[in-house]
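Problem statement: downstream parser choked on a complex file, so we are re-checking the raw output for the (6-phenylpyridin-3-yl)methanamine run. The parser issue turned out to be on our end (a line-ending mismatch), but while we're here, posting the original submission so the record is complete.
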Amino acid sequence: MIRFDVFTILPDVMESYLAASMVGRARLGGQVVIGLHNVRDYTHDRHRTTDDTPYGGGGGMVMKPEPIFEAVESVLGEDFGQVPIVLLSPQGRVFTQATAREWSRQPRLALICGRYEGVDERVRGHLATDEVSIGDYVLTGGELPALVVIDSIVRLLPGVLGDAGGPDDDSHAHGLLEYPHYTRPPNYRGWGIPEVLLSGDHARIAAWRRDQSLLRTSRRRPDLLDAADLTPEERDRLSTRARGADEPADAPSS
Ligand code: JAH
């Protein structure tokens, strides 16, 4: 079981996604607990102020430190100091499948979602233990990145995916992109499927899929190959071989 505590001024927006999907099912199944905490509930003023103008000027608004510190300290209680406190921010290191895998072994994670121009720097320096970005673009807040982090972790938990193959079979599990997938019908608008998939020869199918993953990765994401789990033979072949099209064949198969 894993527990997430999310600190946000938009808990309702997050709940609507977290109630649906595989995450919603995992919560019902008791594999995941998600606490959604409204930072506004930890303000002390009449107007429940969570943001203020930046020192030094320049416009925009910055999230005040006090409600965030008090919310996190109050909710984590005795666990404070033991639990990773993650700030979602475009300035963080890029969140990857490796981080999802590591965090999926934690019993508890806290996620802080900023809005406006971001959070007071003291949250970053004296409260957060980790800072991650889900990619090089700016959003209106950290809520979508927090949902991405939760989703990527929850699907790795034992018993959540409930499907053969599962998380070990997908893109990035071996550091390679996925091979092409097909389902019925075998001929759609004249577009067929690769003959090998109808052969019933499971060894040939596995070899074809591996080959497609390798080719697709070398053409689309050569940056992934350094860290990918390849045999010396596969590395040799990729470096010598002409990297042909990785697009699926479109000859009608029936
Ligand atoms: C935007 C606070 N790459 C992800 C990411 C994460 C957080 C934010 N934007 C992008 C963000 C505004 C305020 C956080």
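For whoever reads this later: The CA atoms of residues 189 and 252 lie 9 Å apart.
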